[in-house]
């Protein structure tokens, strides 16, 4: 196992940060490294908003689920899918841009996720910790107003960045045999593999919480398909120009 693979397999979400600021120029260096992520047709359909204003950071924390580390981390970034720059470039090239296509939403969202993951890996290679904040989609219109996002741009997720105050255990992942299929989609053994993984996750949660939490991966899926559906997202995306035609 080489150093890159070892770094990737040591990822954990950091929710407690030291007060230490990033050295001058490091954030820009990390963003530059992130930009070398793969991008569909090189559209690079993303923008990253660095939120330094204290009042704005506090407001975003409130809108994104009152997660205290949004204000505590040295940096808070909002990764946005951005088709504005691209459509304007196409128009300058002499074509009438076709807007609101579902493919544009997919491409910009995927590009944003890829650049963010590149950023996270680069940050961790420098001894920093990160945690993604999907809570920015709780109130996407209000967050867009704070960030002054124009049409054809939407906030995909936030990211806290800073020097870790703690180093929690690495959370186990699904068995490779569950996600790596050979030639076709074969789920014959998935139930047994997931059951084994559930036992591993239950042990992980009990150790992390000192025996005060009993849960597993299957049980943790319940909120994702009941309480965190964010039904407002479709209308919001349409209002931002992502019509999904």
TrEMBL record:
<dbReference type="Pfam" id="PF00881">
    <property type="entry name" value="Nitroreductase"/>
</dbReference>
<dbReference type="InterPro" id="IPR029479">
    <property type="entry name" value="Nitroreductase"/>
</dbReference>
<keyword id="KW-0285">Flavoprotein</keyword>
<protein>
    <submittedName>
        <fullName>Oxygen-insensitive NADPH nitroreductase</fullName>
        <ecNumber>1.5.1.38</ecNumber>
    </submittedName>
</protein>
<dbReference type="GO" id="GO:0052873">
    <property type="term" value="F:FMN reductase (NADPH) activity"/>
</dbReference>
<feature type="domain" description="Nitroreductase">
    <location>
        <begin position="9"/>
        <end position="163"/>
    </location>
</feature>
<keyword id="KW-0521">NADP</keyword>
<keyword id="KW-0560">Oxidoreductase</keyword>
<dbReference type="InterPro" id="IPR016446">
    <property type="entry name" value="Flavin_OxRdtase_Frp"/>
</dbReference>
<keyword id="KW-0288">FMN</keyword>
<comment type="similarity">
    <text>Belongs to the flavin oxidoreductase frp family.</text>
</comment>
<dbReference type="InterPro" id="IPR000415">
    <property type="entry name" value="Nitroreductase-like"/>
</dbReference>
């Amino acid at each position: 196992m080489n150093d890159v693979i070892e770094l990737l397999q040591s990822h954990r979400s950091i929710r407690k940060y030291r007060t230490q600021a990033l050295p001058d120029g490091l954030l820009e260096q990390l963003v530059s490294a992130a930009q070398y992520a793969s991008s569909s047709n090189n559209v690079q359909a993303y923008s990253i908003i660095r939120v330094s204003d204290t009042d704005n950071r506090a407001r975003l924390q409130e809108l994104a689920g009152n997660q205290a580390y949004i204000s505590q981390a040295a940096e808070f970034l909002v990764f946005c899918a951005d088709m504005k720059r691209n459509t304007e470039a196409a128009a300058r090239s002499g074509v009438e841009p076709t807007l609101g296509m579902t493919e544009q939403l997919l491409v910009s969202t995927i590009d944003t996720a890829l650049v963010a993951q590149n950023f996270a890996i680069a940050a961790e290679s420098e001894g920093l910790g990160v945690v993604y904040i999907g809570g920015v989609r709780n109130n996407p219109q209000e967050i867009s107003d704070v960030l002054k996002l124009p049409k054809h741009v939407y906030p995909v997720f936030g990211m806290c960045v800073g020097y870790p105050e703690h180093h929690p255990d690495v959370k186990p992942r699904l068995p490779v045999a569950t996600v790596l299929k050979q030639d076709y989609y074969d789920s014959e053994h998935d139930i047994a593999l997931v059951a084994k993984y559930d036992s591993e996750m239950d042990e992980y949660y009990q150790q992390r919480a000192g025996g005060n939490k009993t849960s597993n991966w299957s049980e943790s899926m319940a909120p994702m398909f009941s309480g965190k559906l964010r039904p407002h997202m479709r209308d919001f995306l349409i209002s931002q120009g992502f019509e999904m035609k």
